[in-house]
Amino acid sequence: SQQGEEDPQALSIQEGENATMNCSYKTSINNLQWYRQNSGRGLVHLILIRSNEREKHSGRLRVTLDTSKKSSSLLITASRAADTASYFCATEGSGGSNYKLTFGKGTLLTVNP
Amino acid sequence: NAGVMQNPRHLVRRRGQEARLRCSPMKGHSHVYWYRQLPEEGLKFMVYLQKENIIDESGMPKERFSAEFPKEGPSILRIQQVVRGDSAAYFCASSPYREYYNEQFFGPGTRLTVL
User: Fold this and answer.
1) Spatial contact of B19 and B113, defined as CB atoms under 8 Å apart
2) What is the mean pLDDT of each run of 10 residues along chain B (115 residues)?
3) Cβ contact, residue pair A100, B59, below 8 Å
4) Which among B42, B56, B102 has the least Cβ separation from residue A103?
């Protein structure tokens, strides 16, 4: 079964720096989504990139998708302390059970003021 | 437009008791999904429901767990005879009718603690 796996597991940066997180998966997908989770809270949907897209932007977020390598990256530019959270990638598989999102374990991002 | 609502937000149960978790999807959404998040882990799919139908429950333990999404009212995830290993955060998500892709909107979760 497919699995999104993020790396690094934890990332600590200074405010103003860029943060890059990576995600790898194993099987064919319809799309890949990134979510943020603040400590002890629910998930916030950040961005969705479809399998036929290579790059997508949303504000300070930039997501890339390389289906040949089965990998994606999330770049947060000019980070802020409020960006401190766990970030998860989730893949929606192609095929019959494409409603299931498969999540990785996440990257814990700490942005120090 | 209210988001996905879950209650209770926190639930404490003793071993052997029953836990009932409720989820009200976003207005207009007819698809509901339940996920479980163990500490330090990502979310794991449990079950996918549409109104009055269980579409896929492949991620749900065969025993003690059940889910429903009745014609009227919220979706319910029921855990009977809870054990300590059931302690986790349970998230519900909903989506509208999907044609091309599935953006799921998540609720704030219910944190279940089994003593």
Assistant:
1) no
2) 88 98 93 91 91 92 95 95 96 82 86 96
3) yes
4) B42
